[in-house]
Design goal:
The structure holds two protein chains of two kinds.
Chain A (H helix, E strand, L loop, with lengths): L16 E14 L8 E14 L3 E5 L6 H8 L7 E6 L2 E2 L5 H8 L2 E4 L13 H6 L8 H14 L4 H4 L9 H13 L5 E5 L7 H18 L2 E6 L2 H7 L2 E6 L2 E7 H6 L4 H9 L41 H5 L5 E4 L2 E3 L8
Parallel strand pairs in A: 3-8, 3-9, 6-7, 7-8
Antiparallel strand pairs in A: 1-2, 1-4, 4-5, 9-10, 10-12, 11-12
Chain B lengths: L4 H10 L18 E12 L2 E13 L4 E5 L6 H8 L8 E9 L2 E2 L5 H10 L1 E4 L13 H12 L4 H14 L5 H4 L9 H12 L6 E5 L7 H18 L2 E6 L2 H7 L2 E6 L2 E7 H6 L4 H9 L49 E4 L2 E3 L14
Parallel strand pairs in B: 3-8, 3-9, 6-7, 7-8
Antiparallel strand pairs in B: 1-2, 1-4, 4-5, 9-10, 10-12, 11-12
């Protein structure tokens, strides 16, 4: 059942592959109840991607497209149904829990909601050094926490003893980032890290993430529904729709010249300060809503809303294939060809 | 308009800023909704939160005004005050809100609830919380219609189905009998809009109406609102934190910061020549799909001022790159420095727009 696709090595600076995902599939069973269609939710289907050391890969898509499930399956929480997740060459899926815990230390997560991802009873300094417990002595940990707080722009003397409720949303997110970085990870999975922040704070956090990546040579798997945010932070972007990847491309090229009709639709729907009322440049709309992941359309999952859909799209699932250097698309009739 | 920049700065510095002396925002006269010198303060324990300070604007029929600002800027409080939803004993409201010539502040709860729904309607951010989960959506719309008009049940039902069709809910005859949880977020927001439109309101307030929705759904809902506005010749107040939404869908924009309108202009004019450094900061801090990847965003340091403390001088002074001495001692008034374009700043003048990248 698994369709193998050639996974393309990323355009990373030194070419070293950090994370390699192959045919990752995650499914959940939902019990039918009134108003809810029961059955198997095809949350992530045969996703393959790779991420180089120090690279930022953005994953963009709408609610329910499986982008967060993809991130969680990569982190093995919960474990995926099938597929491979190679991190530093080791397949995490086949590891025993204890080995997995060790391997996972080099991957960390920053979540969307900065308040609920911090223990309200803990001091900021303790939150930041918690991942280090059992790895180094108390004094060393405290020193490390102080350093991390400095790195994320929180003066330790002012913030170390505070509790999360005494912080603003942006400050909480800085604490979450400090905690993620305290163990010196190679990969940080950022799941909508700025979506709940105000514009000016969002800009501060985005700049911080950018600085940290260049300084510490960390790779990001950056999940967001916001195209502009993804464009800002990513070297490459993967577009997801209903559990599958539609297109992967270097950021600027994806935005300049989308190949998948869904990518084009997403870009058109995005309001921009340059598209003004009455200027005729208002966002275009695609009709309808994504179908249910319990019963996804046969063939290409976007075909029910695609303006270019043909018979072949229903009969045959388009594979993610490389059609130009670094550009992969899963479409029988990619744009501009 | 011949007053020079320094004279103007001097004038506004000398004028007491709070009450009558503040300049009206672009022509508030002759509009469906006229808000003048609106003040809203909450008493919370021992402290007073000054949520809205001296806010004035107007909206004409068939026009759209966008109010943009960050959380805590007072934009939603302004909307709620217009709807008369802030009537608790700890709320102090001052100024004037006139709707079609009728003063809304001080109006009896009965008169106000007649206006609400029939003349002024709200599309809130979270459609889930504004629908009753135990009642079919069609029935909720019928209720809304029959609350304001003496219509037989059958006629109201026909109208509700018609409305569900107009908001482009697929198969409205069937959806009429469905419950909110059976609809997706976008469809729920359509149902809420159908309910808001049920009595053909003349003013529609969309308070972050698309913030919780996906970008493709957001575009659909905003397009729908624009079409309905044209059909009903409604005035619209679009409240959003997203400057791109304002750019795409409004005629005029008022930018709020710390409870004040700091810049107000026709949308195109504002985007072409931003004058208030805060608006500029907002524009530069938003990543847009037109920018190159990894280009650092220009950020302003700090956080908005604490609303429980009286602000001396310009509220943005502590974060402003152009700050001068006068900014920390005097409050700049919102003045119409250019035709239809007002801003509240001592430093930025009519001659030069703030540098855009």
């Amino acid at each position: 059942m698994s369709v193998t696709t050639a996974s393309v090595t990323p355009a990373s600076a030194n070419g070293e592959t950090l994370l390699e995902v192959r045919d990752l599939t995650q499914e959940f069973y939902v019990r039918p109840r009134p108003g809810v269609l029961g059955g198997v939710v095809h949350a992530v289907s045969e996703v393959s991607l790779s991420l180089g050391a120090g690279e930022a890969l953005g994953v963009v898509g709408e609610t329910g497209c499986g982008k967060s499930t993809l991130a969680r399956s990569i982190l093995q929480m919960p474990r995926p149904k099938s597929g491979e997740v190679r991190f530093h060459g080791t397949d995490l899926v086949s590891l025993r829990p204890k080995e997995l815990r060790e391997a996972r230390r080099r991957m960390q997560v920053v979540f969307q909601d900065p308040f609920s991802s911090l223990d309200p009873k803990m001091r900021v300094a303790d939150i930041v050094q918690e991942p280090l417990v059992g790895r180094m002595g108390k004094d060393e940990r405290a020193e490390r926490a102080e350093h991390m707080l400095n790195v994320v722009g929180l003066t330790p003397s002012r913030f170390a003893d505070r509790r999360p409720r005494q912080l603003s949303g942006g400050q909480c997110q800085r604490v979450a980032i400090a905690r993620a970085l305290s163990v010196g990870p190679d990969l940080v999975v950022c799941d909508e890290p700025v979506s709940s922040l105000d514009v000016l704070v969002q800009a501060q956090i985005l700049n911080l993430l950018e600085e940290l990546r260049t300084e510490l040579h960390i790779a990001y798997l950056f999940i967001s529904h916001d195209l502009a945010v993804v464009k800002q932070v990513s070297d490459r972007v993967a577009v997801m729709y209903l559990g599958r990847i539609c297109e992967v491309a270097p950021t600027a090229r994806l935005f300049d010249e989308p190949l998948h009709p869904y990518t084009a639709a997403l870009l058109d729907a995005n309001p921009s300060v340059h598209a003004r009322k009455g200027s005729g440049a208002r966002p275009a709309t695609i009709t309808g809503e994504p179908p249910s992941a319990v019963n996804p359309p046969s063939g290409c999952r976007f075909r029910t809303r695609c303006p270019l859909a043909q018979e072949r799209c229903a009969a045959e699932t388009p594979l993610l294939r490389e059609i130009a250097a670094g550009r992969q698309v899963a479409c029988h009739f990619p744009l501009g060809s | 308009m011949a007053v020079s920049r320094s004279d103007r700065a001097l004038k506004s510095a000398v004028a007491p800023n709070a009450s009558g002396a503040a300049a009206p925002s672009p022509a508030t006269a002759g509009r469906l909704l006229e808000v003048e010198h609106l003040e809203v303060a909450f008493q919370v324990g021992a402290s007073t939160v000054h949520a809205v300070n001296d806010v004035s604007f107007g909206i004409a029929e068939g026009r759209t005004l966008g109010i943009i600002g960050e959380s805590g800027s007072g934009k939603s409080v302004t909307a709620r005050t217009i709807l008369g939803l802030l009537r608790a004993s700890n709320v102090r409201v001052g100024g004037s809100i006139r709707f079609d010539g009728t003063e809304l502040l001080g109006l009896s709860e009965r008169r106000l609830s007649e206006l609400r729904g029939s003349q002024i309607a709200l599309v809130p951010q979270d459609p889930t919380r504004s629908l009753n989960p135990t009642v079919q959506i069609g029935k909720q719309i019928v209720e809304a219609i029959r609350l304001h008009e003496a219509v037989p049940r059958e006629a109201a039902k026909r109208r509700a189905i018609d409305l569900l069709g107009r908001v482009r809910l697929p198969s409205p005859n069937q959806r009429f009998f469905e419950y909110p949880h059976q609809l997706s977020g976008g469809m729920r927001q359509r149902a809420v809009i159908a309910m808001a439109l049920s009595c053909s309101p003349r003013l529609l307030i969309a308070d972050e109406a698309t913030t919780a929705l996906d970008v493709t759904t957001q575009a659909q809902i905003m397009e729908l609102l624009m079409d309905l506005q044209r059909d009903f010749n409604m005035a619209m107040l679009v409240i959003s934190h997203d400057i791109a939404i304002a750019a795409a869908y409004t005629d005029e924009v008022a930018v709020m910061y710390a409870g004040r309108v700091v810049e107000h202009a026709p949308t195109g004019r504002l985007l072409e020549g931003v004058r208030m450094p805060y608006t500029q900061a907002l524009l530069e801090a938003v990543p847009t799909i037109d920018r190159a990847p990894h280009a650092p965003l220009r950020v302003v340091p700090g956080v908005p001022p604490d609303p429980t403390h009286a602000i001396v001088g310009c509220a943005f002074a502590k974060r402003c790159p152009l700050v001068q001495e006068i900014c920390t001692t005097e409050t700049p008034a919102l003045l119409e420095h250019l035709p239809l374009h007002s801003w509240a700043c001592f430093v930025s003048g009519p001659e030069v727009a703030v540098e855009r990248r």
